[in-house]
Here is the input.
Amino acid sequence: MAKYRLFGKRYKLWIFLLLIASSVGLCSIVLSLIQRGNQPNRLTAKHPISKPSALVGAANHGLSKHVVGLKPETTPELRTFSVPAQFQGKTLSQVKLNNQEKLIALTFDDGPWQKTTLQVLDILKKNNINATFFWVGAALEKNPQIAQQVVADGNAIGNHTWHHWYHHLDKKTAAKEIEDTAQLMYKTTGVKTSLFRPPGGFLKNGVAAYAKQQNYAVVMWSVSSADTDWKAQPSAFVKNVLKGAKPGSIVLMHDGGGEHSKTVKALPEIISGLRQMGYRFVTVPELLKDAKSK
Ligand SMILES: [Zn+2]
Here is the structure.
């Protein structure tokens, strides 16, 4: 019978083949183990931006059901803050209303913010009213739980870019400022919004143009509390709002971007003052639904 050499020794054919087969098998097992060790975990390697994952973050931060307002085992429901066709791709400030009712929309910019946003939410809740918050992506990234609370309380939200830049932006950067923020808003809260407010109210630096192209309503304001004036007292903010209010007004205030304890101080008086004047508080999407059709 023919003999085959392996490692200097001579073997019968069947023993020779068995040895070859077992060494090939052993090699493939070793190789697959090495590969498995090097392969990134599929779940962590991909960034699942297509689905809202607010609760992943919430669970990681040990956030209670009460704070999130959503059960951890459920997917957050998608909510959409859309605008009537006449406002899509348009800039608006004062809204002409359909009926005689005195409606007004309070808006808060530059959050979500530690402390201030929660204080504003508390005041809104005590008064049983809702407002509209225009978020900065960079602030949202830092305060996802506060953001979830804003939405869980029934408030409306809008996009206020990622960096809050004032300078002129090329089209690609302007798109990124808005899209990155929109994506994080969706990922954190499950909300898609058609409301956009340009930082500083600048309409010509590229972001508003991109927002219009994407059919956002560019929401300016018709009454400013002037609460960014750090020298002014809360009573001045109250006066500014009560003096400027008209049915269909959109009121500008800030809950983020810096120290705004004076806004928090002024807010209860702003609300009670407007109430005494006969106003009812609505969110911006609600206000636009009651607008006169052109
Ligand atoms: Zn702003």
